[in-house]
Amino acid sequence: MPARGPSIRIGALVPLTRPGWVEAGRHLLAGLELAAHEVNDAGGIAGRPLELLVRDTAADPRRATAAVDELAELGVAALAGEYHSVVARAVATRADALGVPFLCSSAVLDELTDHPTDWVARVAPAQSHAWRIYADHLLCAGHAHIAVATQPSVYWAAGTRILRDHLAPHAGTVTELDMTALTPVAVCDELAANGATALLLLTGHPEPAASIVRSVRGDRRVADVLIGAPAGQPELTEWATPYGTGIPFLRYLPAHLGPLGERVAASLHEKLTTAPSFVAFEGYDTIKALTSALRTHGPNRADIAKSWPHITTEATRGRIHFTRTPGINNWQWTWPPVQVVERDPSEPGHFRVRPT
After folding, report:
1. Strand, coil or helix: 53
2. Between 261 and 204, whose confidence is greater?
């Protein structure tokens, strides 16, 4: 029987307008909404429906912080979502200060807060875990000397540091190309001069990432340079074009979905009218985990914050269980599945899993 009691409010934070990655936000919201709809159709939480109060962060930390303040005043039991790491860090910091539980769906920056907190948990993997796997893929493919086209950001700087630290014991090197000073054509000049065999896109989308790809692929001097995108940009359909194929990226899905994952995938496909990205599954799994917390500990904020280590729930990509992980200040699912994949150049709608 559908839930009919007073609603339990959940604040849903997603990027729905530029400069946020709108397609990622749309997929994340689809997963959040689908899971909440299923919870309500099954009777809700002790007869009370979940109500998502959706706020657009637009990839703006200040706007996101203001949304947290508003949602806290509106009495939400918890916050969920967010795709952009720098925004998620702002959300986590404010949620921790206000005492509002925040379950982060899709942002991977290791340090969501400056100190250990019980108010924040995450279903996405930490950047250090996933990007080390990506570095292993590069080494496996023979790429020890890489260049990174990067822009100023805590997230990109952290990624560069992870790659450098992981490659160094294997005599690997990382050369930073500052995209505030270089044009895409100048990137090709730098690649031709320094001998890097791989170029990673640690930049904004669609620009300058798209222009960099086109320049590198159109320059015979660097035709053999691998282009990579550990942040996962090619997962979404905006990259399903000739320039977006053959670029290895991180994807947080298992090799094969189980029965729950297959059912959710079909429902998400119908809702989105396109194949769901891993971001949509992250949204769904977020509500699955929050539902587990609410059913066992109730909607009190402090009780939800205490529930993270006790949650064990079967989600679309595996069984979620939160632990304390060295170097990470929030409760963390250890670990969601991590793949390195690329869009197939002969069939851009399909993905090929690469070895690590």
Report:
1. strand
2. 261
